[in-house]
Write a structure and sequence with these properties.
This protein is an alpha+beta fold. It has 4 helices and 10 strands, in the order αββββαββαββββα.
């Protein structure tokens, strides 16, 4: 295994841990549904699923693609064309929120996790931006805490902010700042 292959394997393993920690944070929550969609591991450009997770808490349906980066920025090219189109088409349905949940691990001890709505990212990308930073644009932060070696996320308040965002977009037809 070359050095580059080893780096990619470690990054993929960290991304899978982020997905597992996110999914496990829903355990015991009875009013929120969290469904993991299957993806073809190692075939980033050939992924058929539009996202990693579908979440439901009445009255909102959310589609979430999870990404993890060691940088303070995520390259938008890491979101496949299929994921862009799938998330954008779903986000146009009233009551549906779609976007990318990014784990910024620039600080290994305390990573920051933020949800960026896809239509914000679409406008951002159309403006010529190639990446999105931790503190840029419209996002919904997801707080969490470390339990020994794994993270738990505070899902209920985050889903409330997602629901508030969905209702504001449905009413206004445009993004509102939801920091």
């Amino acid at each position: 295994m070359t050095n580059g292959q080893a780096k990619r394997a470690r990054a993929a393993a960290r991304g899978k841990k982020f997905e597992e920690d996110f999914r496990n944070s829903f355990l015991g929550l009875t009013d929120i549904v969290c469904e993991r969609l299957n993806d073809q591991e190692g075939h980033r450009r050939g992924v058929n699923a539009p996202c990693d997770f579908i979440l439901f808490e009445h009255p909102v349906l959310a589609y979430c693609e999870l990404k993890s980066t060691r940088q303070a920025r995520l390259e938008l090219a890491r979101i496949s064309d299929n994921q862009w189109s799938g998330l954008i088409s779903r986000s146009r349905i009233p009551g549906v929120v779609a976007g990318v949940l990014i784990e910024f691990r620039s600080s290994d001890e305390f990573p920051e996790v933020r949800f960026f709505p896809i239509h914000f990212l679409e406008v951002w990308k159309a403006g010529g931006h190639k990446s999105i930073g931790l503190k840029e644009g419209t996002s919904v932060p997801l707080s969490g805490w470390k339990r020994r070696t794994r993270w738990r996320y505070d899902i209920q308040p985050w889903m409330e902010r997602i629901r508030d965002y969905a209702c504001s977009v449905d009413r206004a037809g445009e993004d509102e700042d939801i920091h």
